[in-house]
Every structure is written in C-alpha cells, then in structure tokens.
C-alpha cells in the first residue's frame, strides 16, 4: 500500500510539473502574439469616434512629443478596439496593435517620460499587453512595490515577471513576490532610506544580487 501511495505521489508531482511547464509555454506564446500591443487606460469613452486607429495615429505624437522627433513617418496602427469590462466607473481600456515592435517600445518609453494628460487633467496610462497568466504574476508584486515606493526605493519589473531592486549600490533580482518579501522585509523594507551601508555584516541579512551571488550588507539606523 505504501509503495503504491509513493508511486501515485511521484506521478502526481510529475503531472503538476508538466502542467506548470506547459502553462509557461502557453503564456510565452500568447505574450509573443501580443508583443506589438499597447493598452491605453483612461481614454474617455467615444472620444475616438468611428475610427480609433486614425484617432490614435493623430493624437499619439501630441501626447508623446518624443514620437515627433524619433519618427519621421507616421505610426502605423494595424487595429484598435476597446475591451469589455464590468467596471462602469471608468472608461473601457483600449488596446491597439502597432505594425512595428519598435514603435510600441517608443510609445511606452515616451509615455513614461511625458506622463501624457488630456486638457481636463486626466492622465493617460500606457502599458504593455500581456497574457492573463503573465499579468497575474506581475500583479503579484503590487504590494511589495508599493512598500518600496513609500520607502523611496527604486524597483521595476522585467519580462516575464522578475522584480529588480536597486538599493544602496546593490542590485537585487527576485523571481516571485514571496521571494522578494522574505528577502526584503527584515532589511530594506524595515529601514528604507533611514539606513546606511557600511560594508560590514552583523545581522546576517541575505540579499540576492543579479549575478546569483549573495551580499551581506550591514545597516546602521540613524535617528
């Protein structure tokens, strides 16, 4: 009986591992199919009229001035539409697909710098478009990134869902929100800007760097 149970457990674990592997492959394939897409949030309903692609081609250089400098030819938008949403308190998100990936990157980079807004002050938000699986993974970092922002600590996400944190000259990388919380809660999140690194280790805090090695910074509280 015990032999059969161990065999079943092994087979079940193998099945779970295979399913996880297939899900990652599926997410990757869907992400690639969306690689030229941009999500536009907060655009008032109906402002685009009957030609959303034409409206965006006209307005994007106005919202993001760097596009006028970097693009001598107009942006080419394959198609654009709003997605369905049960949330009626805000305009439905618009997704548009660009003909070239480089245009998509230019829009996202330019929007981060310009922070475009409409004449009434409504801020327009531009995001990359990912599969539901990748989106869920990235959203898992929302809480930890909010805490880092409150501490004045720089963090960002790289594809597919890896958190990178720059702190006191140390660059850290985390593959999951749980990993980041466990590693940062006793050091960076606890002290934030009110600490200095003197290069000595006393508390044994372990922070994983981008090279995969481990740093043992010592922090002194002030005040």
Can you walk me through this structure?
By secondary structure, the protein is of the alpha+beta class. It has 2 domains: 35-129, Alpha-Beta Plaits (2-Layer Sandwich), CATH 3.30.70.1820; 136-221, L1 transposable element, C-terminal domain (Rec A Protein, domain 2, 2-Layer Sandwich), CATH 3.30.250.20. It is built from 8 helices and 11 strands. It has helices at 2-33, 52-63, 66-70, 101-114, 132-139, 142-150, 177-184, 188-191; strands spanning 37-41, 77-82, 94-98, 125-128, 154-158, 162-167, 170-174, 195-197, 207-208, 214-215, 219-221. The longest helix is centred in the first third of the chain and has 32 residues, at 2-33. InterPro entries: Transposase_22 (IPR004244). It comes from Aldrovandia affinis. This is LINE-1 type transposase domain-containing 1.
Under the CATH scheme, the architecture of the largest domain is: 2-Layer Sandwich
Mean pLDDT value: 83
CATH fold-level name of the largest domain = Alpha-Beta Plaits
Number of helices: 8
Strand line-up in the sheet with most strands: 2-3-1-4
The low-confidence runs, each spanning 5 or more residues with pLDDT under 50, are 192-223
Based on CA atoms alone, the radius of gyration comes out at 22 Å
């Amino acid at each position: 009986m015990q032999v059969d149970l161990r065999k079943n457990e092994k087979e079940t674990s193998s099945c779970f591992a295979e399913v996880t592997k297939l899900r990652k492959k599926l997410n990757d394939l869907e992400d690639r199919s969306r690689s030229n897409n941009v999500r536009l949030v907060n655009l008032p309903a109906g402002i685009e009229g009957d030609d959303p692609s034409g409206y965006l081609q006209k307005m994007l250089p106005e919202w993001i001035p760097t596009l006028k400098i970097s693009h001598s030819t107009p942006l080419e938008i394959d198609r654009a539409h709003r997605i369905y949403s049960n949330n009626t308190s805000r305009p439905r998100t618009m997704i548009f697909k660009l003909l070239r990936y480089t245009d998509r990157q230019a829009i996202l980079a330019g929007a981060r710098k310009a922070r475009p807004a409409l004449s009434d002050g409504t801020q327009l938000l531009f995001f990359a478009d990912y599969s539901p699986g990748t989106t869920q993974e990235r959203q898992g970092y929302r809480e930890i990134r909010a805490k880092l922002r409150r501490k004045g600590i720089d963090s960002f996400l790289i594809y597919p869902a890896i958190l990178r944190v720059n702190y006191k000259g140390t660059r850290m990388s985390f593959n999951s929100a749980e990993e980041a919380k466990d590693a940062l809660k006793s050091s960076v999140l606890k002290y934030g800007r009110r600490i200095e690194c003197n290069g000595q280790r006393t508390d044994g805090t372990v922070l994983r760097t981008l090279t995969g090695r481990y740093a043992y910074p010592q922090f002194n509280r002030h005040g």
